[in-house]
Request: fold
Amino acid sequence: MAHTVTDECVACGACVDTCPVGAITLGDKAEVDASACVDCGACEGVCPTGAIKAE
Reply:
C-alpha cells in the first residue's frame, strides 16, 4: 500500500527530505511513486498539513 497526497499539500518539501527510499518528488504538490514507496509512514508523520494519507 502506498501513500497519496491530497490537495492540502503546500509543497513544503518536508516529506521529500524524510522519505528513506526517495519515492517522493515535488512539483506543484508532492507526488508519491507507488512502485517505490515502502509504506513506512515517515512522510505522513512529517507533513505539516496532514496532506499525506495511506491508501
Summary: The first strand starts at residue 3 and ends at 5. The mean pLDDT is 95. The longest helix spans residues 14-18. Strands lie at 3-5, 24-26, 30-32, 52-54.
